[in-house]
Sequence to fold (776 residues):
Amino acid sequence: MKIIYSCPFIPAEWIAAHGLLPSRISAGSSTLKLGPGVCPYACSFAGAAIEEKTAAGVIVTTACDQMRRIYDVITENTDLSAFLMHVPHTWQTVEAQRLYISELKRLGDFLIELGGNTPTPDILRQTMIEYNDNRAALRDLQGSLSPRDWALRLSEFNRTGKFDQAIQDTKYTPSGVPVALVGGPIPANQCDIYDFIESAGGYVSLDATETGERTLPAPFDRRLLKENPVSALIDSYFNTIYDAFRRPNNELFKWLKLKLTERGVRGIILRRYLWCDNWNAEAYRLKEWSGLPFTQIDANDDGTVDVRTSSRIQAFMESIK
Amino acid sequence: MSGITLSDWDRHYIELKEAGLKEPWYGGPLRRHVEDGDLRLLKLRYDDSAAALRLWNFLLTEEDRLREARSNGKKLVGVMKDLGTVPVMAYSLPNVVAFYPDGAWWTPCIMEMSEGLFGLAASYGLDESFCPVRAMLGAFVTEAHFPIPDMLTCSVGATCDDFSSIAQRVEGLGYPINWWEMPARRKPGPNEKVIRLPGGFYATVDQVAFVKSELERVKTALEELSGYKLSDDMLKDGIRAANKARKTLSELRLAVFTAKSSPIPALEMQIAEMFAIHFCSDREETAAVLQDMLAEAQKRISSGIGILPEDSVRIFWVNPVADLRAMNVLEDCGGRICGADYLFAHALDEIPEDLHPMEALARMALADPMVGSSHDRAERIMRDIEAFGSEAVLISKIPGASHCATEGAVIGRAVKAELNLPVVEIEVPPLTDSMQPTIMTRIEALIETAREWRK
Fold:
């Protein structure tokens, strides 16, 4: 039985260890229409949940206010079992971490209500090892595939827990100017953006979107995994995923600084959703802080790269070549 | 049209003074605030009572009070977002004054944009997609609209993204913030112990304990700032003092909202309610100002005096307005306020005095209508509608606010389904002048529908 969700702070391993199939989706478009002011991504996710026919449940988190409130819309419009998990925005205190743990336990109760099983430590540990290994394999693939192909494999992994591990005959060789793509989620049907950046003379050397490497939890601590798998899970998910909504969010900038240097990034593209306050508020700061050429593009929820976006990317790439 | 203009107040003030009006130190003619830049006052209409004069003067002199407090050696705490909880702690300490930098969201309205705060916020990347509270960032940059606090606190988690994001940018300017977590209030699971909160919501024992632990962190920070230990007895005294103002406000609301004819205008009532969240930087004076307002309302009710026609439609108003003039407009259209949820309903409820004080504050913080679901908020609104006999609901959207994108529809559907009352949403920008015909048309449509439904 499938459980759908979108937030990277929900550990897939936790759902899988309960005997259910975690499916982290990135909803690309929906027929659901909500009023003005609603984040297009949140609207698409609500639409996907409402239209869902095969899932046993949906999990929404409080990582942003729009998604928290989308939970209300989902519960009003579908009988699908829904769970709202509070992901603490603060992270520096033991209390915040404890709250995250208690929310995971509550999520576990929800999963059991849906027919899942209470995982033994061994089952949880084994599940975590499998996911850890898969993520390691995904990381290994990163330099061999084009940014678009890698993003699609990651999307496939998030959605199904599996992905095609085959490497193409011809290894991807990046050419053009290395740029960072930063921001919220990029649904699979909107991955044209990666190709478009390439055709404009660049390539995404750092995928810091919500569906990119930024939200891959760090490999589990082996000692902790052996002694206390839940602690290892918390350690990776709560402490190593960096996001704009966290308070304070200075760890995001520390992570970015490291990666921007490591990848030799020469420009930053922020892909933002209209009404996404968390990322929109950081645009100016990103520009000032990084000292790199910077541009922002609006996410287009029909999956295409529209004329305005393409012109902006082309001009940006021309200016930094 | 009800109420008097600022020009009327100029004459009326002289008459009152000649009749022996005694004012507190911050008293004086309202006109002087216009000279300080509060241009919107020229376009508002006011209640003509001495009590209302005191209320306005108290509101418009807060910055002076803050600067005076600082010069007297008091510590200033900028409390952000929680709307009513942390100030109760802060005012329990002898040398601390708390205020909400959030209040800067009204500055562009009051000063009719002459202060340039939105432009400044935009220059830092906060454009119209953010709610008007973005003015706060500009106020931190200019340091002109409130003294920079000695300490900042901000609740995050189950709060609006606009505020959280803007506060993060404030921190980026070099003002450290004591962030504290507010979990989303949720329905308890089958085996969870439950606590009834002030205002009627429920939370789990675990959630209350968590919020209590977060507030303990804030308390420690306040103690470090002030140099005083905040004992349980001091906090109990602080809660009693806060409740004094809340009780008066509660009596005022009940008297005004249920009176046959409205004794106090919507605008002054909204301002009176705002005082509950941080006492406008003077807790004792707030209680006195509210007592004056209550006395005026009771005097008018007992004399059968109303400021609006008896058949005015009884409106329940949801969310505060960025432009205060909208409250005048409602009355021009034939409405009167009979119930309101200006985002801080929890700050109007009395804080339990029979509990450990930190436990009581934690319960109050969790009773915030904004930290639960929109369905929860709708439930409380509907309870209040029944208590006050409201005939229609007006949901005023705050431009750009993350919660306003979906909550209005949820609340509207609930009210229509459960109470069969007409509901209209309007969007109120910081200055409504150019949109006034549209806003009036929508309010008039609501009023007409409510009148029809009376039949």
About this structure: The beta strands of chain B are 75-80, 96-99, 151-157, 178-182, 194-196, 202-204, 313-318, 335-341, 392-397, 423-427. The longest strand of chain B covers residues 151-157.
